[in-house]
Design a protein that fits this description.
- InterPro entries: LeuE-type.
- This is Threonine transporter RhtB.
- By secondary structure, the protein is mostly helical.
- It has one domain.
- The longest helix is centred in the C-terminal third of the chain and has 34 residues.
Length: about 210
């Protein structure tokens, strides 16, 4: 199993990685700004759930398939980019209203949770990152490598949850005030569409 020193050093690095600008924290930031902190937290839970899939993939060796297969990597990359473009189009066309009674129904927390899962699982770069990163903190001398990998994945999820939740709360705090202005709502929607489209382009251009 993991030693305390290994766990603490890994957790510290994971926090720093979660803080660095990337697709996931930008995704949380924009969703929270558009829909509020509770919506952002639902997305955070979905993103962290998606990390379970990447962790298991590394533990059982599935991530190695994406590292070795150009076709598998391309298919998942195209699926992820298509989903991000779908979100960009939805944000661009989102209606604006300053009157609460005339606003369109908000997405359910379950729908936002699913959005976070899909966003995370359709990014093959996460699987490849985990495949390169997690094994550096495992050792056969400490027992089952698979169990160590799962433990590391859980620590990474905890770090991501704490950092992304802070981002959601910070961005969501301003959301209620921003929703009072139609101009600001429209600006946020356009910025969100631009961010999602940019993330899609970045994913399309990424290589293994």
């Amino acid at each position: 199993m993991l030693t305390v020193d290994v766990a603490l050093s890994f957790f510290g690095i994971a926090v720093l990685l979660a803080l660095s600008p990337g697709p996931d924290n930008l995704f949380v930031l924009m969703q929270s700004a558009m829909l509020g902190k509770n919506a952002g937290l639902a997305v955070v839970l979905g993103l962290c759930t998606g990390l379970i899939g990447h962790t298991v993939a590394v533990a059982v060796g599935l991530a190695a398939v994406f590292a070795a297969s150009e076709t598998a990597f391309l298919v998942l990359k195209l699926a992820g980019a298509a989903y991000l473009l779908y979100l960009a189009w939805g944000a661009f066309r989102a209606p604006v209203s300053t009157a609460p009674e005339t606003r369109p129904p908000a997405l359910s927390h379950w729908a936002l949770y699913r959005r976070g899962i899909i966003m995370n699982l359709t990014n093959p770069k996460v699987s490849l990152f985990f495949l390169a990163f997690l094994p550096q903190f495992t050792s056969p001398m400490r027992g089952s490598v698979a169990l160590q990998t799962i433990s590391l994945g859980a620590l990474f999820m905890l770090a991501a949850f704490l950092v992304f939740s802070a981002i959601a709360l910070f961005s969501g705090f301003f959301s209620a005030h921003l929703q009072k202005s139609a101009f600001t709502q429209r600006l946020i929607n356009r910025l969100s569409a631009l961010v999602f489209a940019g993330l899609a382009l970045r994913l399309l251009l990424s290589e293994r």
